Amino acid sequence: MTPAVRAEIVVDLDAIRHNVRALRELTGVPSMTVVKADGYGHGMVEVARAAREAGSEWIGVATIDEALALRAAGDTGPLLCWLTVPGDDWAAAIDAGVDVTAYSVAELGAIAATGRRARVQLKVDTGLSRGGATAQEWPDVVARAVQGERDGSWTITGIWSHLAASDEPAHPANDAQQEAFERALEQAADLSPEVRHLANSAAGILRPSSRYDLVRFGLASYGLDPAPGETPDLGLVPAMTAHASLALTKPIHAGDGVSYGHTWVADTDTTVGLVPLGYGDGVPRHASNAAHVLVDGKQRAMRGRVCMDQFVVDLGGDRPEPGSDVVLFGPGDHGEPTAQDWAEAAGTISYEIVTRIGGRMTRRYVGTSAR
Ligand SMILES: *Cc1c(COP(=O)(O)O)cnc(C)c1O
């Protein structure tokens, strides 16, 4: 007998491949599949491999450590990382053939100091006020980059930026940032990067003019909607299903309080079920009394607070067998809630739901080339 699955994340790599292909076809320009933060909770190495199989030209991650882990797992294609701190091991990234991102003259200096010929992309801050060179710093960054190309320190392979409000297509920041990006490109006319890129998932889908030479697709690759209410139906398939075994059921009486603080009190006699997952596994406590799960063909409301290891659902008088499947979220095609439903219940975005779920859950891959 196979041991029961206590709590598991199932990742459909066919869904990833389908989404990567659909997005690549939609834009008609090369794609970068973004797999930072362990592939938004789906598994960085497995997602990167599936994305390459589906024709994604580039893979993107945040840190050098993530990039090195991909190389160690056998990834050999174009790979960009973009978030460093002083003291990071630029040399290791360069030796591994990773494109690194420089935000400043100081970072270019640290790259030159490795004595290795690097592939460097430059990031300009066009209005997110996060990473990247400001408009004031940009001419100096470009001048240092040109000098380094002439003295053989590096090849500048990309110039890029990131949008603040791509999920709100009518937000004025989109036009303003794209204009700032155009100005930055003009000021960098002495460089001839392979790729200029600005768009993430929402912009890649909703703002064709922002696609340039490459779109950095994160969330949409996982089949989730980067701009709920704005995105047309592209037939993307959510790749993650989170499910668990029902631990027990019990009858409770009208007037009985449920979970810490008794934030929910039964108004009639009912039955409740115990789900062995809590905020220690990334189930958001903010979803207390708000999210639903699928048990025995019906959506059941969470009752009371999410605890560290467990939460309680209202079974409305039903007594499914302990061990029955409890689906927290999935693609939604069997009546289960979606990650987007959980995001709305918890007052967050689906990015956070899938990226944080995990903890003690095991992960299993399905799809034709799952290994
Ligand atoms: C995370 C990230 C992306 C991907 O964003 P999505 O909205 O998930 O598509 C793209 N670019 C940068 C710089 C990022 O940090």
Give a concise summary.
28% of the residues lie in helices and 23% in strands. It is an alpha/beta fold.
> Can you give the helix content as a percent range?
25-40%
CATH topology of the largest domain: TIM Barrel
CATH class of the largest domain, named Alpha Beta
Uncertain spans:
none
Order of helices and strands: EHEHHEHEHEHEHEHEHEEEEEEEEEEHHE
Record the SSE blueprint.
Blueprint: E1 7-12, H1 13-27, E2 31-34, H2 36-40, H3 44-53, E3 58-61, H4 64-72, E4 79-81, H5 90-95, E5 100-102, H6 105-112, E6 118-123, H7 138-150, E7 154-160, H8 172-187, E8 195-197, H9 201-206, E9 215-217, E10 240-245, E11 248-252, E12 257-258, E13 264-265, E14 270-275, E15 292-295, E16 298-303, E17 311-314, E18 325-329, H10 339-346, H11 350-356, E19 362-366
Parallel strand pairs: 1-19, 2-3, 2-9, 3-4, 5-6, 6-7, 7-8
Antiparallel strand pairs: 1-10, 10-18, 11-14, 12-13, 14-17, 15-16, 15-18, 16-17
Protein name: Alanine racemase
Binding site for substrate: 130, 308
Catalytic activity: L-alanine = D-alanine
Report on this model:
The chain has 371 residues and is of the alpha/beta class. It folds into two domains: 58-213, Alanine racemase (TIM Barrel); 240-366, Beta Barrel (Lyase, Ornithine Decarboxylase, Chain A, domain 1). It is built from eleven helices and 19 strands. The chain has helices at 13-27, 36-40, 44-53, 64-72, 90-95, 105-112, 138-150, 172-187, 201-206, 339-346, 350-356; strands at residues 7-12, 31-34, 58-61, 79-81, 100-102, 118-123, 154-160, 195-197, 215-217, 240-245, 248-252, 257-258, 264-265, 270-275, 292-295, 298-303, 311-314, 325-329, 362-366. The strands form four sheets. It has a nine-stranded mixed sheet with strand order 11-14-17-16-15-18-10-1-19. A four-stranded parallel sheet has the order 4-3-2-9. α10 crosses α11. It is elongated and about 80 Å long. The chain starts with 6 loop residues before the first strand and ends in a 5-residue tail after the last strand. The structure holds pyridoxal-5'-phosphate (PLP).
